[in-house]
């Protein structure tokens, strides 16, 4: 089968198309003939060697396609072996494409419990783009932060997959959403998805400007970049800071006294469990929420170009690979 193979960690150009053997059948596992896969920043870290993937390796966590045994149209939940405790993943938990062959291929093998029907009305690109960002965002906003209708949410960033998913999910349930960005164009695009407004984080004092939009501060801040002090500056007393990334900073000094006098909650989160994904699907069924935003599609063989585009940071929404 055709696949994108990484034989050496490093730049995007190390992702090259090759012909490799297809997945081997095994009880309890399902072969999916993929129609599309989606890129995540996590894939970039895999490519760079941050997760110690075995080489040679086929990356990719997200995908959608057809079950080889039944012909059903499905998507893949890339959260493998989460375990029974919903508060924290089990020791053996991993993300598809970390240590096992992933979705940058014509076919992939996954545990049967990680295969679910493709949502009605979704095309292949939208279905492939939903799982990782949908699951990650649902867990962050609803399983961890307990966001409710009528509350306010600040999303740091406006253009990435998690950010656009957060805007659509939160606005879809009736929360007030504000975003940050370095681009007025992305703020306008976020408004079109349901955000009330946005602020430029390149401007001094942007947390104050963001708080003014919602008259006093946010109930929840979703921080995928690691700028905790700015995030706390935007919260109202008693607010919840949800952290799921460190793309801009990996160290975050805090004013400890201010933190505890403010009665803030600091919540770490990752991609969630299959049960979280069931909650996501129920939420999508209950509310009129649009499918994931697709920024750009590349042919499978152009995965390297897709990674380069993703790393430039200029897009709005998800980058996908077309396998057809």
UniProtKB/TrEMBL annotation:
- Annotated Enoyl reductase (ER) domain residues: 10-321
A Pfam family matched by this chain, by name? ADH_N
Taxonomic classification: Bacteria, Bacillati, Actinomycetota, Actinomycetes, Pseudonocardiales
User: Gene3D superfamilies from the entry?
Assistant: Medium-chain alcohol dehydrogenases, catalytic domain
- Tell me what this protein is called: Zinc-binding dehydrogenase
């Amino acid at each position: 089968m055709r696949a994108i193979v990484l034989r050496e960690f490093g730049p995007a150009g190390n992702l090259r198309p090759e012909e490799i053997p297809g997945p081997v059948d095994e009880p309890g596992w399902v072969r999916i003939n993929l129609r599309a896969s989606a890129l995540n920043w996590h894939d970039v870290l895999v490519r760079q060697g941050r997760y110690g993937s075995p080489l040679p390796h086929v990356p990719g966590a997200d995908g959608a396609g057809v079950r080889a045994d039944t012909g059903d149209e499905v998507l893949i939940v890339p959260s493998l072996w989460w375990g029974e405790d919903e508060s924290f993943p089990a020791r053996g938990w991993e993300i598809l494409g970390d240590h096992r062959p992933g979705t940058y291929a014509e076919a992939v093998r996954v545990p049967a419990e990680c295969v679910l029907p493709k949502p009605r009305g979704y095309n292949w690109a939208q279905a492939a783009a939903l799982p990782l960002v949908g699951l990650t965002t649902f867990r962050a906003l609803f399983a961890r932060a307990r966001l409710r209708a009528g509350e306010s949410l600040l999303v740091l960033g406006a253009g990435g997959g998690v950010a656009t998913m957060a805007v659509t999910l939160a606005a879809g349930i009736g929360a007030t959403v504000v975003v940050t960005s370095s681009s007025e164009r992305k703020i306008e695009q976020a408004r079109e998805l349901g955000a009330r407004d946005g602020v430029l984080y390149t401007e001094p004092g942007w947390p104050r400007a963001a708080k003014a939009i919602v008259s006093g501060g946010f109930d929840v801040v979703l921080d995928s970049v690691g700028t905790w002090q700015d995030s706390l500056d935007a919260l109202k007393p008693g607010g919840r800071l949800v952290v799921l990334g460190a793309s801009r900073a990996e160290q975050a000094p805090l004013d400890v006294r201010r933190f505890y006098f403010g009665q803030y909650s600091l919540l770490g989160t990752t991609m969630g469990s299959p049960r979280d994904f069931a909650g996501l699907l129920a939420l999508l069924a209950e509310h009129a929420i649009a499918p994931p935003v697709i920024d750009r599609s590349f042919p499978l063989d152009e995965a390297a170009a897709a990674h380069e585009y993703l790393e430039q940071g200029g897009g709005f929404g998800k980058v996908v690979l077309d396998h057809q």
